[in-house]
Amino acid sequence: MKTPSLSSSVIQELQAIVGAEHVLTSDADRICYAYDGQRVERVPDAVVRPIDADQISRILSLANAQSFPVVPRGAGTGLSGGSVASSGGVVLDVTRMDRIIEIDEGNQHMVVQPGVIAAVIASEAEKRGLLYPPDPGSIKVSTIGGNVAENAGGLRAGKYGVTRNYLMQLSAVAPTGEHLTSGARTRKCVAGYDLVSLMCGSEGTLGVITEVSLRLVPMPRYRKSMMATFASAAAAGQAVANIVAAGVVAGTLEIIDNFTLRVIEDYAHLGLPTDAGALVLAEFDGLVECAVEEEWRLGTKALTESGALSIQQADDAGERDRIWQARRVALAALSRAKPTSILEDVTVPLPKLAEMIERVESIGREQNIAVGTFGHAGDGNLHPTILTDERDEDEMKRVEAAIEQLFAAALELGGTVSGEHGIGFCKARALVGEVGEGSMEVMRRIKRALDPNGILNPGKFV
Amino acid sequence: MIPKQIADLDEALANCMKCGFCKAACPVFVGEETTSPRAKVRLARAVVRGELEVGGAFKSQMERCLNCRACADECPSGVEPNRIALAARCGLVEKNGLPLLKRAIFSGGLKHPRAMALGMRLLGLGQHVSAVDLQNNPLRYLLPIIGLRKDKDFPALGRRSLFARLPEVIEPTCEAKITVAYFPGCAANLIYPEIGLATVRVLGKLGARVILPHDLVCCSTPVFNSGDIRDARELASRNIDVLSGIDADFVVTSCGSCGLTISQEWTELLGLSEAEPIGRKVIDISEFVARYTPDGGLKAVDDTRIVTYHDSCHLRRGMGVHATPRQLLKSALGDRFVDMELADRCCGGGGTFSITHPELSQTVADKKMECVAMSGADLVATGCPACVMQLRDSLVHKKMRQRVIHTIEIIDGALRS
User: Cβ separation of B18 and A32 shorter than 8 Å?
Assistant: First the structure.
């Protein structure tokens, strides 16, 4: 392991800012802050755990003065390396800042610090009859700071949108140490540049988020789910596109291909139709029962007309739970099948969904690797999951090639290389292909303007 | 040198995709990544790869585990971080040996139950003769020196053991329909004999002839949890010898940890294949009651107290017993049974963990106490004497009014003879 390159005087200054017990420098600690949810690891020189925005500001000022990188980190569950210190330096762990500051039921907002776990926000909202819709797969552990920095999505994005859509106001510390606040706890705000949007999805490269005010919505009172089988994944993808085109908005609209379906059944024994080419799972939700019924009816009609082989409706909570259990265990089932699973998140416009699914299948065949696809089909977001063993070097080469091909296919179909996981360092090269050199130059200028010394999360996509 | 138990885990280590989902479940994860189950896996991997010395930091993280299995339940990839930490502890003990006190207890006291019973009687006699008031003793001011809280609740020692109170064969009150061996474990024998007595009474009411072999020793849970596989094997083997000689339909347990260890760990962890036929016969007392109580056999208990239930980790996640005790309590109590939030969260006892990590154990228990308080219950029922001990201590510490008993004590009162 690399010896830390931070001088002892810098460590002492960091200790003076946050307290000695909140600066971690042991080998064991550094190893534990070297990773997130993807494979590539980089050991930082130290970990610092501030308690407020002032401490963060002082840490960043010190970093500028002493030229060392600072990498913000929440729970470290990201899938693109956003919180990994790609060129050493200090990992700035915000999880001590985990207070809920205010919940306003009248204005339907919640003010939280960055270290609050997303599921806690959702459950506090639920206790008050409100919904915080973004629900990334990591919701039980990931922090809101990380969710905002990565603009996390989830299963409800087709109807409810993503994290950005629920940000009313945001406070952050700029890379050079200034405190900034943008937006307002209002439903509209056009005061100045939209720094909320600039920070959201910036992956910790433009500022350290210190407080967010989140918008909440009324909790749907009625839900109705169904599961439909199709002859192929492409047919299922087309059916999903047809539902949306028919003007029906499902709360959740998911797809599971045959490979994933069989792995799920092997793992969880839910009595799923393993001979089906693919499943479409849909849930319609809303405040008014007859509206939900009508959406459900129109959705069923669209699926039938799209060639559904069977449609099973969930009439009660138990049946509904059984249907969604299949989706919930998808990742677990896939990751148990092989030691290494690589979860991608290519996203395409809905009319291209069926074609993208076919491309994924043919790439898997061509590279002779196992790929299971499931995902948030209703928003064009697929999770092709490559099952492999990272100790198998030869196969890993084919896996890398397959990922390149997946990205190329998504772009060719007018989509994006990342719907919800972010770019980090994992997809930095693919990003250039997506946005072009001109856009990259603008991003680099923004980065330089905010972070002239390049101390905040360097080595990522900008 | 890499301890063998860690190096053997290569496959399990490779399966961890570092998603971090385990962090949501772990009761001893306190925000610092290093304290998470995922970190334990990563640190073990670091040792295997030679990135990290097997030093103090590694040791202290591996020892910082209640073996509550919550992380294993949460893991999408089937990795068992608790198991990896346990393997690491075993490797460390093999390399460095056990601390003196543990060594004395594990390879001395636990293997000589009669001597231990006598020792505890003498301690108890000492308490009695010197009229020591356990709760208001000035000696309590010395407890912080050994890292324990001043108000630490000690169970009364020196009570007559279950083995001293009951013969080795207890005939049922009605005609014998079935023969069972009862494995009370150390707690229901030496510390809380009332749990053992209630269990035997219930078995009798249900027509079971109970064999209570007085040669049984500790099941070995605290021993292997401390990383001492050798002494654990010896204890298990002695129990296997005793139990193999008994022609019983079931081996009944009233402790989640004993039940899990006999049914699974003797074979899986300690590698004693001869334990398998015994393991298959293990049944928790609540499951036994559910299976053998005739319809309407449980009458409503004449008591107005509200009761909630705490899941023993080893009973729930180890033996898969969680619905049955609740159903029994509902039958006996009706609406007076209430489920509490996070009922399946560890109480922080973890056997010797509460002694080796008193502050952390208390932090975990505090969370449990909040849930107990919010439930509105007067009484907490649980299926494991080790949880009883921890919960009672925490209630004393928090100056809370609630009482704790073993589920079977309620069932005993509700079961018609």
Answer: no
